[in-house]
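User: Predict the full complex structure for these chains.
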Amino acid sequence: MRNPDMYYYCEVALPKGNEAVEACVARAERDHIPLRVLIKEAVINAYEDAPVAESRVSRPKAKRTSAKPRAKKHTASDSVSASAVSSAAAFLDDEGF
Amino acid sequence: MASVKLNLGYDRGNERTNACVVTDMNKIVEMDMSSLIAEGDLRHYDAVMSGSGVKDGLTSTHTNKMHLTYDGITYFIGDFANQGDNPTNGFSDEDRYQGKHTQISLMAVCAHLASRLYPYQNVQDLAVNLVMGVPIQAYREKAEVIAEALRNVYRYNYNGKEYTLRVDDVRVFMEGAGAGICAGLDSTASIGIVDSGSFTTNILRFDGARPNTKDCVSFPIGVGTATARLNKWFEREYNRELSTSEQQQILRASIGVDPYPILYADGREVSQTLLSEWIRKALNETGIERNTRIAKHWSKQTINSMKSVIHCGGGAYYFDASLKKIIRSTTVMMDSEKLNARGYAVLSNQIAQRKQLQKGA
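Assistant: Here is the predicted structure of the two-chain assembly.
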């Protein structure tokens, strides 16, 4: 479940005929990957190489209640942390692997 | 035809299934899907969608069309199972962790992740090292039975493509252990894990890297307990039950993620004020019930001796406020419902590396 305080949501129109867009669409159809996943990856990868032009973004106005827990951030949410790796090693040592 | 090996972390919840692989570049590739599976007829479904047939309740849109044919039977998986016959999460089956339901789910997960990891290669030959978690009771009673039942070679068709899946190695651990590893254990301190699921709560204590089995317990109270209460009050007022999707919308609204849904019953609009009151009451009462069970197993002394308590699982978003009444220092990690699968994937990776080193030695 996505915490709206942790993510930006934006509407984006993808031009037909654009090489990169067509490649994403073809891959989505061929490999049954949702198009939004591929576009998201493409945008993030492109930003790492060059600045991305600012697009119109809007954050959903979700009412924050006191019952909602504040989530602790990972430093890099799509990579394994060093502490996870060392914890796994210690766990397996203890299990006798 | 390419052949690949996956080191898979697999968390088969009663409501949602999460699976994860850690790549060579240490990146997480994961999936999250509904645990529902149903038998289905793809030709009938396609005929209906093209307008030449009729079926009650069939919607005209679907997101992920996951279907699999194994042993002559076609299964619809995840959200797509709602288009099949009698979708089930297998909860009533005592042997659900090693039975057909889990096997079908595993086959789909492996094919799906392989296609994402290797999009440009024609990968159809898969081998998997599997690490999965089960409730503590099941872990104590039948971890080996589960592992033995899942080690097999499966030949199936997934979304139109033929696959062979060899499940080579299976390790079964306690639910919650993956989350502890993902959050980071402490070699010099005790850490508590409260894993809040849809039908089960697991509590674990790690002293360093070692689970303190005396303080590890599971009991059958979860988010589903709260929604059952909500559903009972709703039916008493409006003479109909809430669908699973409506219950989920109301749950998300209760923590401010979405607005309360506009619902109708018998031609009249359902009061959103009542929905809000009922879900808060349901979560509160269920939270108290959970806390009573937790306090029965973890004394104040035990709780105070822990460096921290990680609150994980999908239920953490709903029960953290009530849990904090007895354990003030809980931490809800981001993507809390995915932590177990990630931790199991890290374990699977390491087990594979150790086996490789042992072979080379």
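The beta strands of chain A are 9-10, 57-58, 71-72.
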